[in-house]
Amino acid sequence: MTLRALLLLLCAALLHASWNLLVKRSRDKQVFTWCAMCAAALLFSPLVLKDIDALRGVDWRFVIASGATEVAYYAALTRAYERGDYSLVYPIARGSAPAFIALWAVLLLGERVSAWGGLGIAMIALGIQAIHQESLRRLRHPLHLLRAPGTRWALVVGVLISIYSSIDKVAVGRIPPDLYIVLMFAFVALLPAPYFLIQRGVAAVAAEWRTNALPILAVGAMNLLSYLLVLRAMQDANVSYVGAVREMSVVLAALFGAVGMREGFGLVRTVAAGVIFAGVVVIAGYG
Q: Which stretches make up the EamA domain (predicted)?
């Protein structure tokens, strides 16, 4: 992996962990997140004007496919959190995604993953599984974990992450990333709009905006920028490596939780963070 791609992904991870912390502190997380998606599309709409000539030749199949998968991802993630504990759902979803991405990259995109690269991906996936566990003993029986409520939905989330990541990898080879990201975010904001405006109600949306306007704008900006940095990294590196290294955000999120929200970190998280970091080093140096 090039130094440029690595730095882009580390910056993306920092932004991703930061906006997730703000979402975690919000009251109505669904409405808050949707408002942030709308804000992101509006804030960065001038990027479309920069690539106005390319807009005429956009292959909308990628925008629609990735956007629809993103909407399904948010729906599945919500269902997973309704059925299972955060400490199980989050690591299974984020930890399984790099493995699925590597699988699709090899089978469908023709990428080659070196032995060192495969080791790095495995280390990152294992570290993510461990970082939200109270004890490493829970990792001794992975099939038992899958029987817990919500974890099957968590695997669905991991698959969906891998699908839209694979679509994005192909898309950035055909569509300028700046243009693609704004169009995709606009699609993700528009598709569930009837649900939020009719079923949840305009009053609920307006109340969330009045209460959290600045955090919503901040989350929208950081979300889109972090995604854009990932797309830029995909232009320089295998999506299988990008999908793994971007999960450094999990370590940063745990650190932010420990410092900003007084959540425990402890020995297990320290070891897991070290394993994830080592996996990133392996991919960066030998992948």
A: 4-128, 152-283
Residues 6+ apart with CB under 8 A from 212: 26, 27, 32, 35
In single-letter form, the type of residue at position 155 comes to L
**Which pLDDT tens digit goes with each residue over 109-139?**
888 888 888 888 888 888 877 766 666 665 5
pLDDT at 283: 85
Among residues 69, 54, 71, 56, the alpha carbon closest in space to that of 172 is found at 54
pTM for the model: 0.84
The total number of structural domains that make up the chain? 1
| C-alpha closest to that of 15 among 245, 257, 225 | 225
**Interval 205-230: pLDDT, tens:** 999 999 999 999 999 999 999 999 99
CA R_g for the chain: 18
- Tell me the residue range of the domain where 42 lies: 3-286
Instruction: Count the residues in the chain.
Output: 287
CA nearest 282: which of 9, 7, 1, 8? 1
